[in-house]
Amino acid sequence: MVPHNQWRRRKEAQQGEFAAFAYDRSAVERFRQAFPRARWDDERKSWFVPGKMAARRIERWLAREAERNDVYGDVKGRDAYDFEPIDSRYLEVGDDLRVRTPYSKSVIEAMREIPWAHWDEDLRVWRVPFRSYEELLRRWPEIEEAARRSEPEERKRRREAQKDSEAQRAASARAAERRRRRYPLPADDLPPLGRPVATKQYGIIVFVELAGEVAEAAALAEYYPHADRTVDHVWGRWRAPTLAELIATWPARREPGPEALSRGWWQPTLAALRVARRNARSFARRQQAKQPASAAAHRTSTH
């Protein structure tokens, strides 16, 4: 029989409320401090707070957060833009500021550091309120430079310049190694099969086979410098995780320590899982978009 206190805790855990607010790193930290039991729900893109009083507590917290925001922030930001405007083809100005660039990891990292900036999936732009203009202006040189380097013509020019170079040959060798879908693992400390784990070189992956094949010392030295040479390593075969597997994976409470980094695999953190889930969703959308086009082409060819 389940004790009454334990039954009550289970009942309260089933009750609760979802909280959603514009992403801001400091706001997330304050939210986690106020609601230590809250858990992120990737499907609903919001935080779930358990408990019967969750809705009232969330409402009070959001009211306090609203008070923190400078009511004149957008007016000040618009004045700052008028005084020192950004003149760039990557910036559109309307009710807010919209940053549209070619895909670039550097741009994404910079935009995530700007308070209240968020990605608009429908418009395919980063939207920034005027209250964040000064931070956008401060980071704009690195954003614009990264965007220029990501233009198709610039990428092509760099590829042409690197042809037959030592760097190009090394990059080709690394790509060939990745296509082998193998990873060195300490023979006496193997990861679980069929579950997403984080790795040094390839991010979050799922190991599918541990055949016991010994990893060659030359390959370790060339492609996996993290591997501890004092222990024997075997090759583990891997695949990319599915979105469902990433969503079901429980994150680690803390960053990996030196022992896990030396081992080469560890339980992924929430930050790493978010990136992997976002990439998996983008990949699924691209695959979905290709299906109608492929079906239409097939129908045309059959007619």
From TrEMBL:
Pfam families in UniProt: DUF5710 (PF18974)
Domain of life: Bacteria
DUF5710 domain mapped to chain residues: 37-62
Compositionally biased intervals (Basic and acidic residues): 148-167
Family annotation (InterPro entries): DUF5710
Region listing for Disordered, in residue ranges: 148-188, 281-303
Designated name of the protein: DUF5710 domain-containing protein
Organism from which the protein derives: Sinorhizobium fredii (strain USDA 257)
Species classification: Bacteria, Pseudomonadati, Pseudomonadota, Alphaproteobacteria, Hyphomicrobiales
